[in-house]
Amino acid sequence: SCGLCRIPAALKPEGASESSGTVINHSMILVQRLEALLAQGNGSDVSLRVQTVHSDEVKVFQAHSLVLSLQSEVFEGLLEHRNSSTLTLREPADCAAVFEKFIRYMYCGEIAVQLEQAIPLHKLASKYTVLALQHGLSQYMTLHLASDSPHGHVVNWYHYAMQIGDVALRDSCLQFLSWNLSSVFQSGEWGSVSADLLLSLLQRSDLILQSELELFEALEAWIGQNQPGGLTIENALRAVRYAMIPPQQLFRLQKQSPLLLKYHQSIQDLLYMAFQFHSASPLQLAKYFDVNCSLFTPRNYLSAAWGSPWVINNPTRDDRSMSFQTQLGPSGHDANKKVTWNALFSPRWLPVSLRPVYTEHGAIQAARPDNGHPRIIVTPATSSADFAGVSFQKTVVVAVRQQGKVLVRHVYNFHQSTEETGDFLAEADLQHRGSDYLIDSSLYLHIVVKPIYHSLIKAKK
User: Where is each BTB domain found (predicted)?
Assistant: First the structure.
């Protein structure tokens, strides 16, 4: 008797589909039988002979022209013009190693992917124009940037995205690297960063790391490991923001860093500007130099002079506040001047129109907890004449634990003239203990305050 008759049908009630009647769904059985066709080779009309490039290794698969042609225009063309029942394919070693997985996907539409297999599988999907798999693997890489791997994988995926022109994947990798740069420095993949990626990172102001000194030391290590040409070294050294390094550390680097000693001539103008920056009042400096250039623009530094971590336990419970101090500015001239900041976190801030109205009989309109959204406000505790020529850009970093590692999930930037950001945690689930935004039921924030100096505008005569 028919095998289908022995298996209970998956039934959907009438109205579940566009046509009338009950739908009997045995699609999974069909998929299993297609997969068995590949495994057993029954009815095969073509042998795929997969030869590994630069090797004698050969794998043979008994396949079916109809299935391959349905999934791939490239296979359709190859099969149409073949001269025998055997089709020989030459693949690099990494692609040959996963070819069986790739062919199985063609039969059953399912594939189990490991981190190191993503690129070779994507190469095969691209070569044979299996578009759904191509798209699925790009999504997989975007979603698994934070996954743990022995030697790291994000740098490799970035270089691959650049090679194939996948802009979305490239930008996702670049953002992940920029937000988690300290972790990348400590991993094995820092040495595999290309010169182009290195220079792209060095030019960004949104890097999250402990300090500019940490960046310089990582750059020294990269140069020592990769031994690039002199022009690459000079361009990289000129992208370091020396004005963001305290003078005592700059003095030490000038005397103790073999790299700076060797290339001192190439960056002496930047060091000279940095020392002037640290010795003079920023207002005085702004009369003669353009202080809006990258040399005087901070990145997102996590060290204590620039902000404060803030762990909020049970963040949906009630409003919280805290105070912290930062240096007025990165200039050594401002080293002893502190600004006190007040931060307010509200889990369910409500606009006036939705707040409860109180009368002598109590609340007429009770606020529903799901009406509000999280809000964070950062304000200076006092105004001061010292603020002249300086505005403060605030950044809130949200850290999460992904697959055992604490990583940056979101970064919220405040416009320089405002005290809060309108989209703060707008999509976040803070209600459930297992939320992607929480670590052990707590919200892990780090508030960074970046002083931005302004060039003085000369009055027209």
Answer: 44-115
